[in-house]
Amino acid sequence: MKIRLDSVVKTFDTFRAVHGVSLEIESGELVALLGPSGSGKTTILRMVAGLEFPDGGAIYFGDENATDIEVRHRGVGFVFQHYALFPHMTVGENIAFGMKVSKTKRSTVAISDRVTDLLRLVQLEGLQDRFPAQISGGQRQRVALARALAVDPKVLLLDEPFGALDANVRRDLRRWLRKIHEELGITTLFVTHDQAEALDLADRVVILDKGKIVQTGTPEEVCRAPASAFVMNFLGDANRLKVTVSGEKAHVQDVAFDAPGIADGPAELFFRPADVTWREDGQGIQATIARVIDRPDSKRVLALTVDGQAIEFDTAPEFPFRADTRGFVDIRRPRVYPA
Ligand SMILES: Nc1ncnc2c1ncn2[C@@H]1O[C@H](COP(=O)(O)OP(=O)(O)OP(=O)(O)O)[C@@H](O)[C@H]1O
């Protein structure tokens, strides 16, 4: 099922949480809505679900204008971070619940077969008679997904489903969710504020800031070509140096970087800590090492340019230099944005 948002606006009292968002999610696509807290991700998801209604614009499911259709008639499945399972029902009963109350009548045998299939799909065979309190948080979210899938939703909506789980479990679950998505191909909208989660999982990432889309693209597109300083910063660690642009070149000391399309005047040069090579001589920005921090698989080096701007970069654990060493910072893949 293809979903289309056309200039959707949502205002709470006088506060505009969503400012004219337009977005197409192709049938079978997994799209992540990514943005900082308060950027409007959950509000957009709730409007697609029919739990909240826009005060401007429209939402289409396929060719049908679904803007005012109620939640129970939209054919959507949800998993929320805190959408608790029914504690007094077993895992199997939780998964069966939607099928039992659905308009589509199913026989007891059909429901039981479907529960068995779904337990296999979410890799929880054998746990069907446990109660939610008797399984782990990660297992509970897998049951929640099975419950959402039980009624064959046309669209799956996931709001930080792994948000409450620890980092290793989250990583395993998102890889697992991606596999399930590939198997079932249900159009899926996934809300997260975790960049790694969005980049790992999604076919396309939609980045939001203050209720507006600031960039949409594949993980590769948003990583390799962030559209603004905000996206560059939000997607990961970034160094930021003040520069002056003239004739589409950004100048730092006597080093010039390409700055296509950037007007003359003050600007900012961004680059990732992984995109730096330290040189003892030769090309690069002159700097002095201020501190070296050990990490399990690398060293993080803090350096200062001659005009006192801070640069951080990552090196191999064998990096031999210490504080007060002078040298040159050679930068790959720099990006220049207006100041
Ligand atoms: N029912 C409501 N009444 C008033 N303001 C609301 C309501 N729901 C959301 N907001 C406001 O709208 C803005 C967007 O909220 P939303 O929950 O969509 O953001 P989010 O990007 O999902 O954030 P988070 O990652 O923290 O969940 C926030 O400033 C929030 O305070």
UniProtKB/TrEMBL annotation:
<dbReference type="InterPro" id="IPR005666">
    <property type="entry name" value="Sulph_transpt1"/>
</dbReference>
<dbReference type="Pfam" id="PF00005">
    <property type="entry name" value="ABC_tran"/>
</dbReference>
<dbReference type="InterPro" id="IPR003439">
    <property type="entry name" value="ABC_transporter-like_ATP-bd"/>
</dbReference>
<protein>
    <submittedName>
        <fullName>Sulfate transport system ATP-binding protein</fullName>
    </submittedName>
</protein>
<dbReference type="InterPro" id="IPR017871">
    <property type="entry name" value="ABC_transporter-like_CS"/>
</dbReference>
<feature type="domain" description="ABC transporter">
    <location>
        <begin position="3"/>
        <end position="235"/>
    </location>
</feature>
<keyword id="KW-0813">Transport</keyword>
<dbReference type="InterPro" id="IPR003593">
    <property type="entry name" value="AAA+_ATPase"/>
</dbReference>
<dbReference type="InterPro" id="IPR008995">
    <property type="entry name" value="Mo/tungstate-bd_C_term_dom"/>
</dbReference>
<dbReference type="GO" id="GO:0005524">
    <property type="term" value="F:ATP binding"/>
</dbReference>
<keyword id="KW-0547">Nucleotide-binding</keyword>
<keyword id="KW-0067">ATP-binding</keyword>
<dbReference type="InterPro" id="IPR027417">
    <property type="entry name" value="P-loop_NTPase"/>
</dbReference>
<comment type="similarity">
    <text>Belongs to the ABC transporter superfamily.</text>
</comment>
<keyword id="KW-1278">Translocase</keyword>
<keyword id="KW-0764">Sulfate transport</keyword>
<dbReference type="InterPro" id="IPR050093">
    <property type="entry name" value="ABC_SmlMolc_Importer"/>
</dbReference>
